[in-house]
Amino acid sequence: MSDSTGGTPPSPLKKKGVNKMLIAAIVAIVVVALIAAVVLGGFLNPPQKYGLDKIESEGKVIMWTEASFAPFEALDPATNTIYGFDVDLANRIVENISAELGKNITLEIYDRTFVNIPAALANNQVDMSLSGMTITDERNKTVLFSIPYYRAEAGYGLLVQSTNTDISSIDDIINNSKTIVVNTGTTSEIWVDENLVKTGLISSSKVKSLPTIVNCVQEVKSGFSDVFIIDNPTVNTYVTNSSGELKNAGLIPLPDEPYGVAMNQKSTDLKELVDRVITEMLANGEMDALRAKWGL
Ligand code: ARG
């Protein structure tokens, strides 16, 4: 009776064999697809290059700076070019990179907000930054610094309007309830926060933080803030260039601020080269000449 429908029912054994083949085929397809994905993925996403390797393959050095920290970097609006002590030093570094790699390497400089520079170095978007950047323990956690190429010896200056008569020290700022402006992400911003705000000497509402140095200088010129606190050499440069509008009202004497070239932490070969260039320039008088050229 079971035969009345005609045809032989498929044997359980045979069915198992077909299933096995099917599974084997699927597994094979999946394996081939995975291998292809890995190979293609590796091809499309080659391992990241760092330091001299990266520079050699791109034929250029990408540098970020916040271009209003005169005389280290400043922007010439007429030609839209960035110039200054740091730019001269960067050019010397790139000349040495070209010699080392035996090929012509160009330097591309971009004007960027100071506070964003360390992260751009850390994610390898940028090869180096010369931005009057102080070597600090905190920054050492995310970027690699060269040996110091400059030391801002005097501490922070107090940039005020030249008509100002009641600020000549931090005590005056505290006692006369003055308003302060600082450049975001700088060491002087941290100093103001730790020594004046967190200690309760000044209310945080009296301190404004702006993205660039020119923003801060303009803030004082327009009278929106009473004083801009920043590395003393920069205060002096802005005073000199202000044709009498601004003055340096006093100094906050502090330990040295050593400035370094900042790089990605994996760019160790680039750091070696930069250190060598700085060491040579410090020894042969070139660094002194550069300081003299920029009034430092
Ligand atoms: N030396 C200070 C620092 O490292 C200020 C540097 C500001 N530089 C600039 N290009 N805005 O924090």
Q: What can you tell me about this protein's structure?
A:
A hairpin with a 4-residue loop joins strand 2 (74-76) and strand 3. The protein contains eleven helices and 14 strands. The strands form four sheets. It has a five-stranded mixed beta sheet. The protein has a five-stranded mixed beta sheet with strand order 10-9-11-8-12, sandwiched between helices. The protein starts with 11 loop residues before the first helix and ends with a helix. It has helices at 12-44, 51-58, 85-101, 117-122, 137-140, 170-175, 187-197, 213-221, 232-240, 268-283, 286-293, and strands at 60-65, 74-76, 81-83, 106-111, 128-129, 144-145, 150-152, 156-161, 180-183, 207-210, 227-231, 246-252, 257-259, 262-263. The chain is elongated and about 95 Å long. Helix 3 crosses helix 10 (268-283). Bound molecules: arginine (ARG). Arginine binds at residues 65-66, 69, 73, 114, 131-134, 183, 186-187, 213, 231, 257.
